[in-house]
């Protein structure tokens, strides 16, 4: 009976070691899995009109991610536009590891067009950029171009933008 008990104890011990090793290996593989996607376009079936239009847009203009920051009454004369831009640039310099590629705003785009086409009035530049860098109603925004965001980076950036918006 002692030999049978010793044998059972050895089998149990080796079985427990084997199961433990399998759990460690399975746990490691489970940690390597990625669930879901952060890319909204991948949520849509490939043949939907929206996904087809987005794929075409990305093919033509690139896959950059752009955040647009605006508020009611935001226009080219709004001093908050430049102030918010300056604060964003300061945040960008304080956080060089953030995924921000560039920051620009509507008035800068108007001014760049005026520089490029010397003699072009601001009103003419605004008309040319209406619906693109300036809203058709004269509204304006800040464009923040970012590289692909990890969830943690996205959360940090959105929290900073909310803080900036609150003043």
Descriptive overview:
- The chain has 167 residues and is mostly helical.
- It has helices at 2-32, 49-61, 79-94, 106-116, 122-129, 151-166; strands at residues 65-69, 100-105, 142-146.
- α3 runs antiparallel to α6 (151-166).
- The longest helix is centred in the first third of the chain and has 31 residues, at 2-32.
List keywords for this structure.
6 helices, 167 residues, 3-stranded antiparallel sheet, elongated, single chain, mainly alpha
**What level of helicity do the residues show?**
55-70%
Class inferred from helices and paired strands? mainly alpha
End-to-end Cα distance? 80 Å
- β content, as a range? 5-15%
Would you tell me the overall average pLDDT? 80
- The number of helices is 6
Q: What's the SSE pattern? A: HHEHEHHEH
Shape designation = elongated
The parts where pLDDT drops under 50 for at least 5 residues are none
Query: Strand order within the widest sheet?
Result: 1-3-2
Let me know the largest β-sheet: 3 strands, antiparallel
For the CA atoms, what is the radius of gyration? Answer: 28 Å
Number of strands: 3
Briefly, what is this?
The chain has 167 residues and is mainly alpha-helical. The protein contains six helices and three strands. The chain is elongated.
């Amino acid at each position: 009976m002692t030999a049978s008990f010793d044998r059972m104890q050895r089998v149990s011990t080796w079985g427990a070691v084997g199961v433990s090793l399998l759990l460690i290996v399975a746990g490691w593989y489970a940690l390597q899995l990625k669930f879901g996607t952060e890319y909204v376009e991948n949520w849509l079936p490939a043949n939907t009109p929206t996904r087809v239009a987005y794929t075409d847009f990305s093919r033509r203009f690139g896959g950059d991610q752009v955040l647009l920051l605006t508020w009611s009454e935001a226009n080219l004369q709004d001093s908050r536009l430049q102030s918010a831009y300056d604060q964003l640039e300061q945040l960008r310099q304080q956080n060089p590891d953030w995924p921000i590629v560039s920051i620009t705003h509507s008035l800068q785009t108007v001014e760049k067009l005026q520089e490029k086409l010397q003699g072009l009035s601001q009103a003419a530049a605004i008309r040319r950029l209406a619906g693109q860098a300036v809203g058709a109603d004269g509204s304006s925004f800040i464009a923040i171009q970012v590289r692909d965001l990890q969830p943690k980076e996205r959360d940090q950036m959105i929290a900073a933008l909310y803080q900036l918006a609150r003043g």
